[in-house]
Amino acid sequence: MNPPLSPVSDLLDYATALFAAAGCDGDKPATIAAGLVEADLLGHTTHGMQLAAAYLKELEAGGMTAHGEPDVIADRGAAVTWDGRKLPGVWLATRAVTLAVERAALHGQATVVIRRSHHIGCLAAFLQRATDRGMMVLIASSDPAVASVAPIGGRKAVFTPDPFAIGIPTDNDPILIDVSASITTNGLATRLRREGKTFPGAWALDAAGKVTDNPEALFADPPGTLLPTGGTDHGHKGYALALMVEALTQGLGGFGRADAPDGWGASVFVQVWDPAAFGGADAFRTQMGWTATACRESPPVPGGDAVRLPGQRGLDRKRRALAEGVALYPGILASLEPFAEKFGVPSPKT
Amino acid sequence: MNPPLSPVSDLLDYATALFAAAGCDGDKPATIAAGLVEADLLGHTTHGMQLAAAYLKELEAGGMTAHGEPDVIADRGAAVTWDGRKLPGVWLATRAVTLAVERAALHGQATVVIRRSHHIGCLAAFLQRATDRGMMVLIASSDPAVASVAPIGGRKAVFTPDPFAIGIPTDNDPILIDVSASITTNGLATRLRREGKTFPGAWALDAAGKVTDNPEALFADPPGTLLPTGGTDHGHKGYALALMVEALTQGLGGFGRADAPDGWGASVFVQVWDPAAFGGADAFRTQMGWTATACRESPPVPGGDAVRLPGQRGLDRKRRALAEGVALYPGILASLEPFAEKFGVPSPKT
């Protein structure tokens, strides 16, 4: 049985009303709603509206700041640093990408770093804000308060999965990448564990350092760890990616694990390049269009489907959802009902 | 039997004399020598002096330009694009990192992109030019004239291994990352094939798309392909990294596969961030020092050695080589003898 469909605008209105009722000021409710729903449209179901109930709880508990602006720590034109004051991360990340696009238009490229953001949701949800303007964007995020990924060869966690997303304009749909430095994420581990399932591969270590496909290992005491990308075979690559993301986010932000922060949060890095300032906007689209076509036309391995580009399936899903309505992953609307009741917000039509 | 040791300065003098005799002007011979020898000092033996004979052949054949400067395609202060005119890539990359460091000191961070460079050798060899100044650096390279890595799910190559290197200052030794978007590289495949060995894992596909550990598959007709990082289990991550590197190098450079270039070359991307312009230089070192220590102190998996940081072994090797002399990988000095004889350059003492 498929979950029922909601028109996207109803879902946006519903999420906006919930975050407004929870006390978020200004354009925060609509921006948070847009970022979360965008993730569901693209099929990132663990990082869309599934997060809304947790964010609403954080607002209630004071872990997420509902009012005001980030503090500007440094602004050198092409290099901007904010203290996010634990403001809603989806809102901060949206604004950071918008600012980086503006500054890249001025300086050719720009960096915006946010320390002490709250969780930013789905990184892929922000990419088209840059690619729609013909710009390339890289977004990375880490949470210095928690750790679930060990350096390769170790069995005590140092990193978060340290996701990074990349938007690349082409002569057609943009390429939308959203990957992490670990093989899998805490979100998927939590969902599989709840559903009594295992990882599709040996993606974790138990606390003793033994390879396992059981997500339960992550929740044991002491806990196991997620393996970096490349796993036991070549996990030094994922380890390198984790160090890159932690340096871009916490290193540049100047706030991180060394400060032993507590509570749910994020350190965020946004970089935008304007091809017009380099070899040219048309030349960029031509090159990446050629490469995208070459990927799609690479003949599939035996028994495989046609080669896809990152984001292709998500953009197809999004077009379908905008036309036909969006089906949320089971359990998400139920998780919001207590808040809807408390705030007197009517549930979306399905 | 270990190969004999040469004092590092003798090896530098030898390589400098060879490239000067081959016609390179100005500071090119010494800069190329420094970049290649640095790779050997760090233990990147496939990308150090092993390349010298091939470079000298390219100079002789006119595939590598011996004289002059790159053309400046665009210069927006924090965003610079060069046409490398097939000048020696090791020299171009050294200059690009130097310029990016200067510009990052002015603008907080800076990007330098080079189209039509010649091969740049070992990416890790350039990192300390930024980290010694307390800056973080990312270098990426691709060769649009060749392809050996297929998108995941495909069996026709679209990408080069697309290496990227990252230098991260800490409160102690810098972290020096040098990885590729594919599990392994053309250089290692060539060496293992010559030595009649196999890959340590299923790191390639034959032309039919079947997984193999035999490097011979890469040299068959039609050729097989190198698997992206993550392999058959989660190779969409390596595929994403390849797209990132091709976009940063060929997309921003505005020159690449769509132009069907021939000959050996490289598209190069250099990004430098100055922590002083963000959350602060001391704060950066503190954060990354904390994280580096946490990695080293993560208890090892059963039967494993202590966790190392990327670059740690290379920097130890380099210190030893500077004190005791450097041992080149077998066959390298022999490959240079024909050039040394032709140019009348005396071989280094061992």
TrEMBL record, chains A, B:
The keyword Oxidoreductase applies. One of its GO terms (molecular function) is oxidoreductase activity. The keyword Glycoprotein does not apply. Keywords: Oxidoreductase. It holds the Pfam family Ldh_2. InterPro entries: Mal/L-sulf/L-lact_DH-like_ah, Mal/L-sulf/L-lact_DH-like_NADP, Mal/L-sulfo/L-lacto_DH-like_sf, Malate/L-lactate_DH-like. It comes from the Bacteria. SUPFAM superfamilies: L-sulfolactate dehydrogenase-like. Belongs to the LDH2/MDH2 oxidoreductase family. This is Ldh family oxidoreductase. It comes from Limnoglobus roseus. The lineage of its organism: Bacteria, Pseudomonadati, Planctomycetota, Planctomycetia, Gemmatales.
